[in-house]
Amino acid sequence: MHRNDAIKQFHGGDERIAELIDEQAPAGLPTPDTDVPMVSRSVRLPLETYERVREAAEARGIGVTTLMRQWIEAGLADLDDSATVSLADVRRALAALAQPEAAA
Questions:
Q1: Distance between CA atoms of residues 63 and 81, nearest Å
Q2: What is the pLDDT of residue 5?
Q3: What Cα–Cα distance (Å) separates residue 86 from each residue in 67, 83, 94?
Q4: Distance between CA atoms of 90 and 46, rounded to whole angstroms?
């Protein structure tokens, strides 16, 4: 059925539209990456900043919003003196301590 015909049937009160909807395959919705309820906010960034964030996320194999959320959480943890650091940062720091001449 053409979309316009379906719209006309729907607005005309034709009950066959319900049958048409029932016949369709269920829509595949993305699986949330967390069980924690999330709030969506819009952030305006300069294009250059967004591109840098996108590249950083791509290099880590994660989505842009996931990386931004991680950075925000780390920044908030810094405000309340709790320790949130990535394992990669810990490894780099330990490697630098193990080779002090390389760090200088």
A1: 27
A2: 75
A3: 12, 10, 13
A4: 30
CA–CA separation, 45 vs 13, rounded Å? 46
Q: Say how many CA atoms lie within 13 Å of 97 toward its Cβ.
A: 6
- Amino acid in position 95: A
In a domain, 86, yes or no: no
Supply the pTM of this predicted model: 0.49
Token digits of residue 20? 């048409």
| One-letter amino acid of 45 | L
pLDDT at 104: 53
> Is 49 a domain residue?
yes
The span from the CA of 2 to the CA of 17, in Å, is 12
- What's the rounded Cα separation, in Å, for the pair 33 and 10? 35
Number of domains present in the structure of the chain:
1
State the residue range of the domain holding 57.
Answer: 43-81
**Mean pLDDT of successive 10-residue segments in the chain (104 residues)?**
71 68 74 80 94 95 92 82 71 81 55
